Amino acid sequence: MPELPEVETTCRGLSPHLLGKRVESVTVRQRQLRWPVPQRLEKSLPGERILSVSRRAKYLLIGTGTGTLISHLGMSGSFRMVRQDKPPGRHDHVDIALSSGWVLRYNDPRRFGCMLWTRADPLRHKLLKALGPEPLDTAFNAQYLYRMSRKRKLSIKPFLMNNRVVVGVGNIYASESLHRAGIHPRRPAGRVSLARMEILVEEVRQVLAEAIQAGGTTLKDFVREDGQPGYFAQSLLVYGRSGEPCRRCGELVRQEVMGQRASYFCPACQR
Residue 89: is its pLDDT beyond 60? Predict the structure, then answer.
């Protein structure tokens, strides 16, 4: 499932191809995504010029003078820039033809993504308004995380993955950040000290920054907007390495299910 670095990589990759371009037409081949693609998308978007391409959490926001396209990649979605004469594939559900002669094509085999349209402030949309701070923004800091975690018995890993606490720290990056910070994923969030929260915040930021720089993490469903995979997987210390030696101490990495998600950690390095 694409996480924050994958969406940020997509956002940065698409921006040069979209900004300033006029939308010529919208073709919807499959309307039944996670939520139905609204009929008004084909009526409202053509003729509009794209003024902004941004990201909020795992949502990609494409803004025009009259509204914003809100998109989520779901579990297997991806955007590609293709020529207008390229035939669509089986899972190519939406085409946005541009004045440049290129098409922004949305592909989603599992159809868990979404493409919605709003004329209001997108940050006030029901999907976005209750989200926590961005992990790379100054609002996400040790004091904030410490305050939010007090008296919480919930384990630190699912606490860190809660989008109302902080957005975009998915399963892979939570596992990696906790390992780098030396914190066991089952430790109650309310029992993590301020000093350790300071380390954790810095590691979250570093892990995500490195993943964005590398182009995301290679998983079976994720490719960048240019069709190439991300390469951060080569730097993973614990995720997906159950039974292999910890790269720091040599102890075997363990895997346990926490909150219905596979969690990876080193029993020696993480306390």
Answer: yes
Q: Could you tell me the pTM of the whole model? A: 0.88
Q: What is the pLDDT of residue 214?
A: 79
Domains of the chain are 4-124 (3.20.190.10), 142-265 (1.10.8.50)
> Residue 175: what pLDDT?
96
Burial tier of 22 (Cβ tally within 10 Å: 0-12, 13-18, 19+): middle
- Please say if the pLDDT value at position 85 is more than 50: yes
Q: Is 147 a catalytic residue?
A: no
Q: Is 133 a catalytic residue?
A: no
Give, in degrees to the nearest 5, the angle at Cα 221 between 118 and 88: 65
Is 188 a residue of the active site?
no
Among residues 21, 56, 58, 157, the one annotated as catalytic is 58
At 100-139, the pLDDT tens digits run 999 999 999 999 999 999 999 999 999 999 999 999 999 9
**Nearest Cα to 111, choosing from 30, 228, 2, 185?**
30
